[in-house]
Amino acid sequence: MLLTPPRVEVHWLRVGHCRHPEWVTLRGGRWQPVDFPAHCALIIHPSVGPILYDTGYADHFAAETRTLPNALYRWVTPVQLPAEQQLRSQLRARGVRMEDVARVLVSHLHADHVAGLRDLPKARFTALRADVVENIGRRGIGAVRRGFLPGLLPDDFDRRLDIADERNVVDLGRSWSPFTRGFDLLGDGSIIGVPLPGHSPAQLGLVMWNTDGQPVMLVADACWSTRALNENRLPSIIARPMMHNWSRYRTTLTDLHTLRRAQPDLQMLPSHCTEAHAAFHARRHEPTRE
Ligand SMILES: [Zn+2]
Description:
Layout: E1 9-21, H1 22-25, E2 33-45, E3 49-53, H2 59-64, H3 71-76, H4 87-92, E4 103-105, H5 111-114, E5 124-127, H6 129-135, H7 140-144, E6 161-163, E7 169-171, E8 181-184, E9 191-195, E10 204-209, E11 215-220, H8 226-231, H9 246-262, E12 267-270, H10 274-284
Parallel strand pairs: 3-4, 4-5, 5-6, 11-12
Antiparallel strand pairs: 1-2, 2-3, 7-8, 8-9, 9-10, 10-11
Bound molecules: zinc ion.
Zinc ion (ZN) is lined by residues 108, 110, 147, 199, 221.
């Protein structure tokens, strides 16, 4: 691993949400419904430019789930996307246009992570091979069962796709154990892709160093809350069908919990955690856009 990897500027954005009783996403949680926000990252790289990690929700989600079988997805997760949380307006507030986005690092292909890809005309995409292979080509109920809505992908998705697993492997070092290796996604050591399998076949997590010099780890849906991470607490059994492989999900969650204990100050950001989002912004004294 590079001793001084290039730093990047990380913005953690909330782009829409749905609501669930807390016990669905956290075993032993409350009965009352809580927000289940969709976050994505805007990452400003010094030479590549603006990069996204996922997109959160977009209006395409509503359009794609108007009729059956995709409407099943919408019934399970009714989505709210206020105008001020639209990705376009949040990027504009930071001086970035949608056509400026050079690349999207896709954690996995669930609709709440890729709904905005069609709005990014110049971006190339990076994803782990197994997530692509397991989903591309699926249609109808077979796709929606996996949380995959093929109509959300741009028509030329295949041509704009780079496979993360084909990048050079880098050693993360013992302090990141049990995550010892990752993929050098940009070739300069600035953003390391770490597979977090179980929720989806592969699932791409990221390790990078923010402009303040602090490492940040984006863990997507490998866990759904900081509390789950801290306590190694699984979701409800009712969430089990949402997982590609339950036993791998458990192993990945335990690995993240182990890392959490070894590096208690590491900023670990699950994609759907309100608490982690607030803590990230509090650390930077930035206002949140709730
Ligand atoms: Zn997911």
